[in-house]
Amino acid sequence: MSELNNIASKILEKGKGILAADESTGTMSKRLDSVNVPSTPENRLLFRETLFSASSMTECIGGVILYDETIKQNSSQKNKIPELISKMGAAPGIKVDTGAKVLAGSPNEKITEGLDGLRERLKDYYKLGAKFTKWRGVYTITKNYPSKLSIHANAHALARYSALVQECNMVPIVEPEVLMDGEHSAKECYEKTSEVIQKCFEELILHKVDLKGIILKPNMILPGNQSKEKISNDEVAKLTLACLKDSVPSEVPGIAFLSGGQSEIEATENLNLINKYNDTNFTMSYSYGRALQQSALKFWSKDLQNIEGTQKVFNHRAKMNTLAARGKWSKDLEI
Prior knowledge:
The chain is an alpha/beta fold.
């Protein structure tokens, strides 16, 4: 087993998942504004450190994706944030893209940037303790999109990023996110997600990326959030599995789903059903941001010093998702 494969497998072992705490300062400010908490570096750190030192970190969380600001901060115990995460038994990771910008040649679509100077930045993050990285490509579904240009350009960027990350002895999370925004059907989501993922793997193979040393972070197959179509959680799980079976090479050790606009309970329930029906060798887990943090954030906003209470809320969500990653969750376990 290669070192990269070892890291990837360990992050998702025994139902563990990934805490996506890599919100940019702008996004984190919006989250804090929504619960009337001032977005200061101190408050951003306090909330994140509250989660990073919760007991479920050891039992349920295999990796934490950090933002540039956070990976360089010290905890209240004066140790570096990556050290705190490692001490809890999880791997520190880092978001390395610089965001989605307008795609030249197709102004209604986005291309993720951040390749310039990436090799040097990766060396710095590795020294800071990062074991894995994340890069997100985004695609919209309409009558004309995603275009071939968008599918090709984002796959190429994800592959170049992954090759550089593995060169620096870290595991790349490959995140091609087909957005829920729109009126599209589940069938259209299935078709476009399949096309996007297949193109990503074409490019990864072309760039000689070791597929045993990556984690795929895809969306689940869902109708658009403005679609009149309603499908059952069972159908979501079966369509998602069918899509991944057709599109993902067997060497990939693990798949960690993004929650992508689903509620906390929906994201847990769909993951649970995917694992109930999972007849592949892929480990299927979670890499959730809002779907792990939202309830804890609301609770914390009422009293920023109630660390224990906030951790209790977070621990519950983390445990529910880890049960779902093993196909052992049920609604009556929810409080």
